[in-house]
Design brief:
InterPro entries: PLipase_C/P1_nuclease_dom_sf (IPR008947), S1/P1nuclease (IPR003154). The chain has 262 residues and is mainly α. It has one domain: Orthogonal Bundle (P1 Nuclease), CATH 1.10.575.10. The protein is 60% helix and 4% strand. It is globular.
């Protein structure tokens, strides 16, 4: 009886841990990949200004900053809702009820506003640049444009190669980590695109990019059953999607930064 209780308790702890640990969108490797790709597409003028503002730190290095400050809820708790947008699968952002505390779209918009304002302090510009790098990465993780009722897939329990996880965490980290590639390797192995293809990806607004990601979100929700053990087949099908989203995030981040700093 005691053994059975311990087994159940262990399973419960794994389940809770999976939810708690899956808040960091893409995980460090994904965010750094997006930052690295963006660096490769900056204009010389933008790159110089950004290097000065970040005091030599790279976009890849600062890309995880917005997750790191989550540990200080008292000081930075007001930015928590900037990491996601909750919306039904059949809805468009313009038609949804907005979070009064802000969301990913309003967060990105505010970052851009601060960075373009000549009266903003250097400290504010540095802070909101770090936030922008992260949030544009978030924008391209399908489960951060997920449903409110399941917390963007956090409560949809699945297994990843026999270990407890959830749908959010699978897309956040599990798929990427299984390939065991550094962010530099992922960035350097991004798809070779023509100038026309890059321009096409960079077209549109932040809301347009949100809708682009949301199309993928719909498919992700239908890709699993609760409790399913996801293995190599799932990686085979969806790792190319993850790579494409990381690349889109990097290219679109570069577009925003070039517009701001060039």
């Amino acid at each position: 009886m005691k053994t059975k209780f311990l087994i159940v308790l262990a399973a419960l702890l794994v389940s809770v841990s999976s939810i708690a640990n899956s808040e960091d969108v893409w995980g460090p490797t994904g965010h750094r990949t997006t930052g690295k790709i963006a660096e490769q597409h900056l204009t010389k003028r933008a790159k110089k200004k950004i290097e000065k503002l970040l005091q030599g730190e790279s976009l890849a290095f600062v890309s995880t900053y917005a997750d790191e400050i989550k540990s200080d809820r008292k000081k930075y708790g007001k930015f928590y809702t900037w990491h996601y947008v909750n919306m039904p699968l059949d809805a468009r952002y313009e038609d949804t009820e907005k979070n009064p505390d802000g969301d990913m779209v309003t967060g990105i918009t505010y970052c851009i506003k601060v960075l373009k304002d000549e009266n903003s302090s250097i400290e504010d510009k540095r802070f909101y640049l770090k936030m922008l790098v992260h949030l544009v990465g978030d924008l391209h993780q399908p489960m951060h444009v997920g449903q409110k009722e399941d917390k963007g897939g956090n409560t949809i329990q699945v297994q990843w190669h026999g270990k407890g996880s959830n749908l959010h965490r699978v897309w956040d980290e599990d798929i990427i980590d299984k390939w065991d590639m550094s962010y530099v390797e992922l960035a350097c192995n991004a798809k070779d695109l023509s100038k026309e293809q890059i321009n096409y990806i960079q077209q549109g607004t932040v809301v347009d990019w949100l809708h682009d990601t949301h199309k993928i979100t719909k498919g992700v929700y239908s890709s699993v059953e609760v409790g399913e053990n996801l293995r190599y087949r799932y990686s085979y099908v969806y790792f190319p999607v993850v790579r494409e989203q990381l690349q889109k995030g990097g290219l679109r981040l570069a577009k925003l930064l070039n517009d701001i700093f060039s």
